[in-house]
């Protein structure tokens, strides 16, 4: 009977040692899981902040874009920027103090549809990237008033401004 009691006591002490080892492992895993939770929350916050900043930057970039409609395909030639600078200088003579070469950073044709081909009678946009947002605020909702020899007229983009 003494031998059996010793075996049971030995088995109990082995189980106690195993339980202590298991508790130590569980404690380490809980600590690691807690630190990973904090790291995950910090990364989620950083991702949310980065997404907000990206959206803000995209919106700010679009704020300085002007879309010009009514310019026939190909009239700008190979240099849309120079054509648009010349067009604005002619169409907006009251704003000669602006350095249009600096104000218009980039100009390019934007296709009418995703395939890039225009249906008959449709014209694509010319998109201008401006240096600052104040250039987007045009009088009379995008209409440009030009004083000619005869009268004050509203000019879209007609043949007179397309001659060159």
Number of strands: 5
Structural class: alpha+beta
- Biggest sheet layout: 3 strands, antiparallel
Strand order of the largest sheet: 1-3-2
Gist?
Helices cover 50% and strands 15% of the residues.
Which terms summarize this structure?
alpha+beta, disordered C terminus, three-stranded antiparallel beta sheet, 164 residues, coiled coil, single chain, two-stranded antiparallel sheet, 4 helices, rod-shaped, 50% helix, Transposase_22
Topology:
Blueprint: H1 2-63, E1 65-68, H2 80-91, H3 100-103, E2 104-110, E3 125-130, E4 144-147, E5 152-155, H4 159-162
Antiparallel strand pairs: 1-3, 2-3, 4-5
Structure, described:
The chain is built from 4 helices and 5 strands, in the order H-E-H-H-E-E-E-E-H. It is an alpha+beta fold. A 3-stranded antiparallel sheet has the order 1-3-2. A two-stranded antiparallel ribbon has the order 4-5. A hairpin with a 4-residue loop joins strand 4 (144-147) and strand 5 (152-155). The longest helix has 62 residues, at 2-63. It is rod-shaped and about 115 Å long. Mean pLDDT is 74; it is low at 135-164.
């Amino acid at each position: 009977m003494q031998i059996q009691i010793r075996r049971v006591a030995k088995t109990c002490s082995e189980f106690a040692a195993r339980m202590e080892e298991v508790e130590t492992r569980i404690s380490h895993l809980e600590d690691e899981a807690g630190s990973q939770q904090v790291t995950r929350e910090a990364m989620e916050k950083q991702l949310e902040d980065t997404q907000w900043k990206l959206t803000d930057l995209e919106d700010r970039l679009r704020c300085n874009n002007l879309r010009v409609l009514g310019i026939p395909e190909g009239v700008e030639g190979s240099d849309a920027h120079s054509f648009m600078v010349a067009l604005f200088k002619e169409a907006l003579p009251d704003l000669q103090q602006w350095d249009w070469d600096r104000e218009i950073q980039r100009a390019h044709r934007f296709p009418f549809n995703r395939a890039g081909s225009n249906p008959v009678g449709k014209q694509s946009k010319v998109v201008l990237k401006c240096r600052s947002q104040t250039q987007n605020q045009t009088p009379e909702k995008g209409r440009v008033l030009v004083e000619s020899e005869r009268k004050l007229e509203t000019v879209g983009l007609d043949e007179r401004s397309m001659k060159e």
